[in-house]
DNA sequence: GTGAAAGCGCTAACAG
DNA sequence: CTGTTAGCGCTTTCAC
């Protein structure tokens, strides 16, 4: 079915050892003539060495495992994914992938799948930190691990995250400086995780610092693949109760999009009646009825760094763990009510 | 580093053959007591058989390869992907993934990567049918292949697509019946491919059938990861030239979103000044300033069927190829100007 | 400069 | 009922 090294060897009239040497540029010298023949045959037969065999032999599979929550939940994860993929490909690494849908059980099943495939490292956006704690702690001893975006505070593994406290702080402060005193936080449908906790912290921190008492957290249903809809419903019922808020900090752009629609349908205007700031700087932002002010994360950098750190462990055997925390950035559009020109 | 069958065997005080038998429920009977011991040890050690070794041995890797254009280009591909992933997981299959970004060269490189990993089958959304024709024709003899969404008319492989001629026909006809006589087609930034060609055909077919002479195809730049922006720019310059059209059929929702924004910024109203129909029924549709009328494709079914057909070939050795063509459906919202209640 | 042979982890045929 | 062994495709000593 597949062409093997044997086929190449017999076709070229040499031993498999020689074929292997030629194809791997073995320091062992091979006669120029032999080399050419082998190369030609390998090319004609379009031979690709089996990574299964190579992996078995070398105890290195040149594959990385990824566990993501979902790809339909906005482009945040997708962008990180593409960066990972590109960087992996540059290093001749393959990607084996699974989506957890934010379910801790599914996540464990996926990890086991990756273990069976003997990936050289795993990049994980964990769903519910806390639940799989012991599991990952054990796993870490078996294979290099890096957590992206979210993490287990108790596990001292590599991780690359965004400073979410700061991001939320900036967002909230921005609204405060615009004169808002009644700012609500619109929560997302993600299971509890560090990135969201940190954003909530940042929200409170900003309010504290500016001596604002008013706090309000609007909860949404937890369905990661229907964030917009869940947020839409939550906002609709919240506004229906005639709550007096003048601004909203949404924990991500997806829920902001749902909220925007709800506000609009209730006959209110953004940013005049309610100002809105999102998080993630989704590519949809500029195309919304009211372009969305948001907090940008360095998505591509996160993905690229995840691979770099993993390969560092795999190849250079680094054992001390690294925690990289990237800076978020405020992107001003119209939904917050600021004049973009003032700050850009 | 990893726990192997040997570790389990020695720990349990049996041979590796016995461990293998127990773990694979070999018809060979194993003493109940031995079985229990092995199971316990395997569990304690959290042993996972190496798929590398199993794959080598059985010439079946239980992995499927996927090649997709991109994940940030709207949720169309993502939704298909999730369906594939779910169905694969149900059959204990893993997914090895690569994005081609619509580049034919990259696509070939990715195929080679999948070949090296000895995947049991490949699911491909090809980027530029025509370019890699001979390549795929050869590949097909090596490994089961299925094309999704787009395909090579010349290659008689399995494929699952949507009836795009019909989808475009329905969309265009819908606009015609709403009284429009000057309907433009807004093209997408995808490289030329069957799905888009078919939609263009459907557009012309509807116009032909209703004896409408006016035709206009608005081209956009070809950047798959910036579809909205490319469409936005194309529309802006098109409208700037004072063209007289009353409706637009956009080849996908992404470009429709970009167009919507351009129309809006030009001071025109949807659907009053320009009616708009998209394609794909992206989840963003209901959240746009003017909820988007669109043509829905059976994305989940496409993904699921792709896996099913592939496994059919892998396990049941089917050799006749199957072409599945799913029916599209019109989803009426507000952007077309129809009263949803009329048709729902 | 090249070939023969061992062995990575596993399954399956063959003994016992 | 269980152990021994060959071999999947490849790399890597060790001989010649």
How would you describe this structure to a colleague?
Two copies of one chain form a homodimer. With about 350 residues, chain A is α/β, with parallel strands linked by helices. The first copy, chain A, folds into three domains: about 5-50, lambda repressor-like DNA-binding domains (434 Repressor (Amino-terminal Domain)), CATH 1.10.260.40; about 60-160 and about 300-325, Response regulator (Rossmann fold, 3-Layer(aba) Sandwich), CATH 3.40.50; about 165-300 and about 330-344, Response regulator (Rossmann fold). The first copy, chain A, contains 13 helices and twelve strands. Chain A has a six-stranded parallel sheet, sandwiched between helices. Chain A has a four-stranded parallel sheet with strand order 7-6-8-9, with helices on both faces. In chain A, strand 3, helix 7 (about 135-140) and strand 4 (about 145-150) form a beta-alpha-beta unit. The mean pLDDT of chain A is about 95. Chains A and B meet through helix 4, helix 5, strand 2, helix 6 and helix 11 of A and helix 4, helix 5, strand 2, helix 6 and helix 11 of B.
């Amino acid at each position: 079915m597949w062409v093997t090294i044997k086929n190449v060897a017999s076709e070229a009239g040499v031993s498999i050892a020689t074929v292997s040497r030629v194809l791997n540029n073995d320091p062992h010298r091979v006669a120029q003539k032999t080399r050419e023949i082998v190369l030609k045959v390998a090319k004609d037969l379009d031979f690709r060495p089996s990574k299964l065999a190579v992996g078995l032999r070398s105890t290195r599979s040149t594959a990385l495992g990824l566990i993501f929550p979902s790809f339909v939940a906005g482009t945040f994860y997708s962008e990180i994914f593409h960066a990972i993929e590109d960087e992996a490909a540059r290093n001749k690494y393959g990607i084996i992938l699974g989506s957890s849908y934010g379910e801790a059980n599914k996540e464990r099943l996926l990890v086991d799948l990756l273990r069976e495939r003997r990936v050289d490292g795993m990049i994980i956006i964990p769903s519910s930190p806390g639940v799989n704690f012991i599991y990952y702690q054990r796993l870490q001893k078996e294979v290099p691990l890096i957590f992206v975006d979210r993490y287990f505070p108790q596990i001292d593994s590599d991780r690359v995250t965004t400073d979410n406290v700061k991001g939320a702080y900036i967002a909230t402060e921005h609204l405060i400086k615009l004169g808002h005193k009644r700012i609500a936080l619109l929560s997302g449908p993600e299971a509890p995780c560090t990135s969201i906790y940190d954003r909530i912290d940042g929200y409170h921190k900003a309010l504290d610092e500016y001596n604002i008492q008013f706090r309000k957290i609007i909860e949404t249903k937890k369905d990661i693949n229907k964030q917009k809809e869940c947020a839409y419903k939550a906002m609709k019922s919240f506004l229906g109760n005639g709550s007096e808020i003048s601004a909203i900090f949404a924990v991500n752009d997806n829920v902001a999009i749902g909220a925007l629609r709800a506000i609009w349908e209730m006959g209110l205007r953004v940013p005049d009646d309610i100002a809105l700031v999102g998080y993630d700087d989704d590519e949809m932002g500029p195309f919304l009825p009211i372009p969305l002010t948001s907090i940008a994360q360095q998505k591509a950098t996160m993905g690229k760094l995840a691979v770099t750190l993993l390969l560092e462990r795999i190849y250079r055997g680094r054992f001390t763990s690294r925690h990289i925390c990237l800076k978020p950035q405020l992107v001003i559009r119209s939904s917050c009510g600021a004049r973009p020109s003032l700050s850009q």
